[in-house]
Design brief:
The complex is a heterodimer of chains A (370) and B (397). Chain A has 370 residues and is mainly alpha-helical. Helix content of chain A is 70%, strand content 0%. In chain A, helix 9 (164-190) runs antiparallel to helix 16 (320-329), helix 12 (236-262) runs antiparallel to helix 15 and helix 13 runs antiparallel to helix 14 (278-293). In chain B, a hairpin with a 2-residue loop joins strand 2 (169-172) and strand 3. Chain B is globular and about 70 Å long. The two termini of chain B are 42 Å apart. The chains are: A mainly alpha (370), B alpha+beta (397). Chains A and B meet through helix 3, helix 10, helix 11, helix 15 and helix 17 of A and helix 3, helix 5, helix 6, helix 12 and helix 13 of B.
């Protein structure tokens, strides 16, 4: 803003009139011309896209909102053209909590709120201290107690009755917290100079990464019981959890390996020349740098692990997808799959999108480059 | 030399306790780890053998030769319930290959389009592509499969009111029905002509490159290859009397007769996998294009290359080096995700293996087969990747 006034004040340019840029080059019109109609092809594409949006979006909005029914019984929905969100609102407690005893459902609610609160607190790096780690351990213990009961006057609830959102979140959170250290160990093992350790780690990682998660889940649900001595059984949720942990760890290991390889040799040599042993070299010099580099790919693995928890449907665990399908198999609510699946999609999208958004922010904060 | 010996006498080294020697320590540690793994394996195996013995389950792959006694909804090779389990599993594996192959081709096409759209100068198109990528990546692929499947069997009308977007193409709750080309010997000849043309094009390319190295004269390889690959099948078609007979599907009673029906299960698996994976491919393509610096294009133009040459000789080789490795891993992901077809009843390999396990109780063998088949896909992909990386690696000084 300074320069035009200066020019105007100076005697030399006083004679020349200061022209404003043409109205078609700045402001909304200029923006439109620059971004949407800058040449014939782009103008055509813009018009076609607008026509397409005009054809699809308004009917969709009418279906999803204007004509939609939100809380009515299913009979009314069947006479209606719009979306029937009642399938969600009327069954929300079953979708979210599965077969958990109806009068006890405040407990999973509290557990989920506790978990979300912990996640919310962990966002800020200023809370990344030992205290937070203890808070997580305490929080997860309290969650487990709330879900299982049996102490402090809480009625015990069999884990076979756990279901819905708490199950999805538990599988994801416990899966990730256990898989991460295991993955780091595997990555270190793969980079190790000891041939036996190295080969074991490579075989494990490549084997797991080569097969689909579903084969591991099958293994957990049908073969794992054969591995245990007679009379000992481990419940199905734990077995699926183990499969998810073993699967995710292999992927985390590969990501961490990328980080380890990106650390220049000089760092290892400097640590050695300081007299640090292997453990201290890794803990103080290499891992802090390596793990920082790989935050973005790690988060994408977290996101896919969260999405992958939906696969437990196939071995008939009642996660949030399976509870929804159970509702849909009820004759009363048959035929409203679109609405139900869209609701679930929104649920998963919210989770994954906030994770990827957070990862981008963290990446910016952690970047020490100028 | 004597003073050195004095400083470090051999007797002192042997007196050093073994835990201070890193080499001995490493050997000890590895022996410990191996022993632990062997112990765990031994424990699991003995338990398993004991359990199998107690439950009277026979082990081994003998069941593969028995009669399968179940029908499979769709198959590329002839199959009936009287065939063996081995054949049923082969049918499943071929179904997996079918959906994965078509899926990969469509994914690469769609993903490339969206990746380019993401970089478009057109704000609207770039935004739409970004929204597509973000939304599709953040919804589990299994949920997407269920959604498309539900759309087919629940929302679409029955055969009588089938949607008819193009002549001869019907969409209804029985799937997608498209016209089928009548069998004719010309098709086989055309396929042979195409294969021959590809081989000739490859030879021409090698010859042209060698000639250019020797004489500096360029040869229009691209145009000649295009002419060969399009021309040879066309000539074969004309020579065989240009067969044009096509059977249009027709509604008879409650179903369509004639034409080719793609089942709702197949369509749902294909749609779900393609739409989901294309979002990841789009990101890869975008990154690949952005990885080639602007200076590269400008330098190539300054050398006087034509735009097509700039693209073919400068931009693409560099972009592909960045694109191909993650792209192959996405193709592999698509193949592995096709195993989710079991959830909506498309008879892929996992689905057939699952039925086999349920019928025979041979769970260990069944799961082992699943793992081996997918490991085969993965290992061959990584073999290809290593070969490509070696070929495409930057040759540095």
């Amino acid at each position: 803003m300074n320069r035009p006034t200066n020019i105007q004040d100076s005697p030399v340019s006083n004679s020349a009139e200061i022209l404003k840029p043409p109205v078609t080059a700045v402001g909304p019109i200029g923006w439109l011309r620059k971004n949407l109609f800058n040449n014939a092809l782009n103008s055509l594409l813009t018009l076609l896209t607008l026509a397409f949006l005009w054809k699809t979006v308004p009917p969709l909005l009418r279906w999803a909102f204007a004509d939609a029914l939100w809380t009515t019984p299913s009979a009314l929905c069947r006479q209606n053209d719009g979306a029937c969100w009642s399938v969600i609102s009327r069954n929300i407690r079953f979708i979210l909590f599965g077969f958990y005893p109806y009068d006890q459902q405040w407990r999973p609610t509290a557990a989920v709120i506790l978990l979300l609160g912990l996640i919310f607190f962990s966002r800020d790096r200023k809370y990344w201290t030992k205290g937070l780690a203890y808070a997580w351990i305490a929080g997860l213990t309290v969650m487990g107690t709330l879900m299982a009961g049996g102490v402090f006057g809480l009625t015990g609830v069999e884990s076979s009755l756990w279901g819905g959102l708490p199950l999805t979140l538990l599988l994801a959170v416990f899966g990730l917290t256990a898989a991460y250290p295991l993955g780091v160990l595997l990555a270190l093992g793969r980079q190790s100079r000891m041939p036996a350790v190295k080969v074991l780690c490579i075989v494990y990682i490549e084997l797991i990464r080569g097969v689909p998660l579903i084969s591991l889940l099958f293994m957990a649900s049908i073969i794992f019981p054969l591995f245990l001595p007679a009379g000992i059984t481990i419940n199905k949720i734990l077995r699926a959890q183990a499969a998810i942990i073993l699967f995710t760890a292999a992927y985390i290991a590969e990501v961490v390996r990328g980080g380890l390889q990106a650390i220049p040799r000089g760092q290892y040599e400097a640590a050695e020349s300081l007299g640090l042993n292997y453990y201290l070299t890794m803990r103080l010099v290499v891992l802090p740098q390596a793990l920082k580099i790989v935050i973005p790919p790690t988060v994408s693995i977290l996101i896919s692990a969260f999405k992958d928890t939906s696969l437990v449907v196939i071995i008939a665990l009642y996660d949030v997808l399976k509870t929804t399908q159970t509702v849909l198999s009820n004759p009363e609510w048959m035929g409203f799959s679109r609405e139900a699946y869209l609701f679930l999609a929104l649920l998963y999208f919210t989770g994954c999108f906030s994770m990827s958004h957070y990862s981008r922010r963290l990446e910016r904060q952690l970047s020490t480059e100028h | 030399m004597p003073p050195v010996q004095k400083l470090n006498p051999p007797s002192a080294q042997s007196a050093e306790p073994f835990w201070l020697d890193p080499r001995k320590r490493a050997v000890l540690f590895q022996a410990f780890v191996l022993g632990l793994v062997a112990l765990i394996a031994w424990y699991l195996v003995t338990n398993t053998v004991e359990n199998l013995h107690r439950q009277k389950i026979a082990t081994g792959f003998g069941f593969l030769q028995k009669e399968a006694a179940f029908e499979i909804g769709e198959s590329v090779i002839p199959y009936s319930a009287a065939d063996t389990y081995a054949r049923a599993l082969l049918v499943g594996a071929l179904n997996t290959v079918k959906v994965a192959f078509i899926g990969i081709v469509l994914t690469v096409i769609l993903g490339t389009f969206i990746g380019i759209a993401r970089l478009s100068g057109n704000w609207l198109i770039a935004r739409l592509a970004a929204v597509y990528i973000e939304v599709m990546q953040d919804i589990p692929v299994l949920l997407q499969l269920f959604f498309w499947y539900a759309l087919f069997y629940e929302t679409l009308p029955g055969p009588r009111n089938a949607l008819n977007p193009l002549t001869g193409v019907y969409v209804c709750n029985r799937g997608l029905i498209i016209p089928a080309v009548d069998p004719h010997p010309a098709w086989r000849i055309m396929a042979l002509a195409l294969a021959a043309a590809m081989v000739v094009a490859w030879v021409v390319r090698r010859w042209a490159r060698r000639r250019q190295d020797r004489t500096g004269q360029a040869f229009p390889v691209f145009r000649v290859s295009c002419a060969l690959i399009l021309g040879a099948p066309l000539l074969a078609w004309l020579a065989m009397g240009s067969p044009r007979a096509v059977t249009l599907p027709e509604l008879q009673g409650f179903n369509f007769v004639g034409g080719k029906t793609l089942s709702p299960e197949f369509m749902a698996v294909l749609l779900g996998l393609v739409l989901y994976t294309a979002a990841f491919v789009a990101e890869i393509v975008r990154a690949g294009i952005q990885a080639v610096g602007k200076g590269q294009r400008e330098a190539a133009m300054a050398l006087g290359l034509r735009p097509a040459q700039v693209l073919r000789l400068v931009i693409l080789p560099q972009a592909l080096r960045v694109i191909i490795p993650p792209l192959t891993s996405q193709m592999l992901n698509l193949t592995k995700n096709s195993s989710l077809a079991v959830a909506i009843g498309y008879p892929d390999f996992v689905s057939v293996a699952n039925t086999t396990i349920n019928q025979t109780g041979q769970s260990i063998e069944g799961v082992a087969l699943i793992m081996v088949v997918y490991l085969f896909f993965s290992l061959s992909t990584s073999a290809f990747m290593n070969w490509y990386n070696k070929k495409a690696k930057l040759v540095e000084r």
